[in-house]
């Protein structure tokens, strides 16, 4: 039996707005674990066929770690957290059915890291014949306006896919018409948002990192496609460690680098 975790007020807020912020969801002991795990993953060497480390370039053109993905096969603690009953029950309560892990990543947004262009997640996931996803963000560091916290547009998740630019980001006209709202968080907070809510984030203008997990789930009725996702991504838009010199990955970038600052 699925455990009820959210209050009626939180469920109502989710339905009306497309996101819900759970402040202090994780205790101090878990927050410390999350921080140590992120630091461990940050320090792992770039290794073909294993964890996927993606980089961006700062204003001076220096290589800057942007993201690590596909890490749960290599970290038992994170696998237990991300695929554990408590987390799946939480996401499943919002989905209305059992949730399955679709993909997992850490966005590091180190000092000087760029922002993420306004977008919806849903258009990037159609390749796998899935129509709906929920992303669970776990704050490792405080997220603020200065370091590029997530910004959302409440209540617009019920409108389906909005007009886009050629790169998959939301059209300039749509962006200008939306009312953007920053959602600041503290370590241990959880922010859940669905795949149709418009969202974006600014650059990190501070001297400290803004690290956060972004874990995406799909409905069990739409199939377990995590392995398919990472097999396809590693083929079409691999990390530098897996790339074949001289091969053109621009087509894969159009699908897998949607609104991201990752260096193509």
Question: How does this model look, in words?
Answer:
By secondary structure, the protein is α+β, with helices and mostly antiparallel strands. Helix content is 26%, strand content 22%. It is built from seven helices and eleven strands. It has helices spanning 8-17, 28-43, 76-83, 85-95, 172-177, 226-236, 250-256, and strands at 19-22, 52-57, 63-69, 99-107, 116-119, 133-139, 150-152, 181-183, 190-194, 199-201, 212-219. The strands form two sheets. A seven-stranded antiparallel β-sheet has the order 1-9-6-11-4-3-2. A four-stranded antiparallel β-sheet has the order 5-10-7-8, with no helix packed on it. The protein is globular, with a radius of gyration of 17 Å. The mean pLDDT is 96.
- Gross morphology is globular
Q: Tell me the Rg in angstroms.
A: 17 Å
Class based on secondary structure composition and strand pairing: alpha+beta
Kindly report the spatial arrangement of strands forming the biggest sheet: 1-9-6-11-4-3-2
Distance between the termini: 45 Å
Number of strands: 11
Instruction: Bin the helical content.
Output: 25-40%
**Count of DSSP-assigned helices:** 7
Mean pLDDT: 96
Q: Major beta sheet, specifics?
A: 7 strands, antiparallel
Point out poorly predicted stretches: none
Order of helices and strands: HEHEEHHEEEEHEEEEHH
Tell me the strand percentage band: 15-25%
């Amino acid at each position: 039996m699925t455990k009820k975790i959210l209050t009626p007020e939180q469920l109502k807020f989710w339905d009306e707005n497309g996101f819900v912020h759970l402040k202090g969801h994780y205790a101090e002991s878990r927050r410390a674990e999350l921080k140590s795990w992120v630091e461990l993953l940050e320090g792992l060497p770039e290794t073909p066929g294993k964890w996927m480390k993606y980089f961006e370039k700062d204003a001076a053109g220096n290589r800057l770690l942007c993201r690590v993905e596909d890490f749960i096969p290599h970290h038992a603690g994170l696998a237990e957290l991300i695929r554990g009953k408590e987390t799946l029950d939480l996401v499943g309560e919002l989905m209305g059915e059992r949730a399955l892990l679709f993909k997992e990543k850490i966005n590091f947004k180190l000092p000087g890291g760029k922002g993420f262009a306004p977008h919806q997640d849903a258009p990037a996931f159609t390749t796998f014949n899935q129509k709906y996803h929920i992303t669970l963000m776990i704050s490792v560091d405080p997220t603020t306006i200065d370091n590029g916290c997530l910004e959302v547009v409440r209540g617009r998740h019920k409108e389906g896919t909005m007009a886009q630019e050629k790169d998959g980001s939301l059209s300039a006209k749509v962006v200008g018409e939306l009312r953007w709202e920053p959602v600041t968080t503290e370590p241990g907070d959880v922010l859940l948002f669905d795949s149709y809510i418009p969202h974006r984030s600014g650059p990190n203008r501070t001297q400290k990192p803004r690290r956060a997990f972004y874990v995406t789930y799909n409905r069990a009725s739409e199939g377990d496609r995590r392995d398919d996702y990472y097999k396809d991504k590693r083929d079409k838009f691999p990390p530098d460690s897996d790339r074949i010199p001289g091969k053109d990955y621009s087509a894969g970038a159009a699908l897998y680098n949607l609104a991201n600052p990752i260096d193509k």
